[in-house]
């Protein structure tokens, strides 16, 4: 087979419609857990709609493991109930939280998704989302016809049970004082309950500017987080999945605060990495393409590129040993193409670049 007889990739791989229409902007690639939970119409449908979300999501082995383990403990099974998500690069962490949100809130709509049928189903589940990016510790959030939520614990209670649940922490919310373990236990016990916390460090850093007597709101938030992890660990059907910051390599404005936060919860949590470097290409492919063509076509393309590389190297080889090396390198190239591997990269940087290439 010669290169000119290979079918153009545009006749083999079919991009998603939004890619072909060029609708996506850089912001689209950054999942926003708070916007998903609010049902924000400005949040792109690929994140907001659970069916579309999972259709465009490649479930890595590690991501599937996180989803399975969380749903298992929500169903009453044994396992780690407090998970800290860590990624060595941007992307993957918030995506995992969004996946858990949809599985907990919209499982019935996802019953036809083949990738998800084997995952446990805990049934109706209470879900609370605390986004360090969205929540403002200075002004809090005013509920129309309801209370003025001032803290994470006030927000948590309101999301889980409205006015009745909020009464359990009303005084502590007004005083901005972390509730005790008993109050949190009464709040969280009962039906399956999933707590999703994203980029907690941002909220704690902002809370440092709010004085409370001889301490700060940040200190109370840290006490709250420590107690929360301890209570969740003892629940029969509860789970808490959280991230401290966008990635483990992202510099925090306050490194000591990050270290202290990590130390507070590290006795309780289990650290998980939902996306590894080897998964990046598959994640990108699933997001950009509806299908990648049949395996025979992919094998033919890989073999042709390998043959071309071998011919070019052999043409310039000066010895039999160099020609043998050429054949070995060509074989390795073919395997790499078939395996679709890529060096570890930042997903949010790779996606828009690749999307532009696909459209052109």
TrEMBL record:
Entry's Gene Ontology molecular function annotations: ATP binding
A Pfam family assignment: DUF499
Classification via InterPro entries: DUF499, Ribosomal_bS18_sf
Highest taxon, organism lineage: Bacteria
Keywords carried by this UniProt record: ATP-binding, Nucleotide-binding
Protein name: ATP-binding protein
């Amino acid at each position: 087979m010669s290169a000119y007889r290979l079918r153009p990739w545009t006749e083999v791989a079919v991009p998603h419609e939004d890619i072909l229409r060029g609708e996506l902007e850089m912001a689209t690639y950054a999942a926003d857990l708070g916007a998903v939970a609010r049902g924000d119409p400005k949040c792109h449908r690929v994140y907001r709609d659970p069916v579309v979300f999972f259709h465009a999501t490649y479930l890595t082995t590690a991501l599937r493991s996180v989803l399975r383990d969380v749903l298992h403990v929500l169903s009453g099974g044994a396992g780690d109930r407090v998970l800290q998500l860590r990624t060595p690069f941007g992307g993957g962490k918030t995506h995992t939280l969004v996946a858990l949100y949809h599985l907990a809130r919209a499982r019935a709509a996802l019953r036809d998704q083949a990738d998800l049928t084997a995952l446990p189903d805990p049934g109706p589940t209470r879900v609370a989302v605390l986004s360090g990016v969205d929540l403002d510790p200075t002004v809090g959030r005013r509920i129309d016809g309801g209370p003025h939520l001032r803290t994470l614990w006030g927000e948590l209670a309101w999301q889980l049970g409205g006015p009745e649940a909020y009464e359990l922490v009303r005084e502590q919310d007004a005083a901005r004082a972390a509730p005790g373990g008993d109050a949190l236990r009464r709040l969280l016990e009962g039906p399956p309950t999933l707590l999703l916390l994203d980029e907690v460090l941002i909220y704690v850093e902002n809370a440092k500017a709010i004085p409370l007597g001889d301490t700060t709101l940040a200190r109370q938030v840290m006490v709250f987080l420590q107690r929360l992890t301890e209570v969740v660990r003892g629940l029969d059907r509860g789970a808490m999945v959280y991230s401290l910051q966008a990635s483990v390599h992202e510099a925090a404005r306050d490194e000591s605060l990050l270290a202290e936060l990590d130390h507070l919860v590290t006795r309780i949590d289990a650290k998980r990495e939902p996306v590894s470097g080897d998964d990046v290409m598959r994640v990108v492919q699933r997001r950009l393409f509806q299908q990648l063509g049949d395996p025979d076509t992919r094998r033919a393309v890989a073999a042709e590129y390998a043959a071309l590389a071998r011919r070019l190297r052999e043409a310039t080889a000066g010895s039999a040993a160099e020609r043998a090396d050429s054949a070995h390198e060509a074989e390795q190239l073919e395997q790499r193409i078939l395996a679709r591997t890529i060096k570890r990269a930042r997903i949010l940087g790779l996606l828009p670049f690749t999307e532009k290439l696909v459209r052109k």
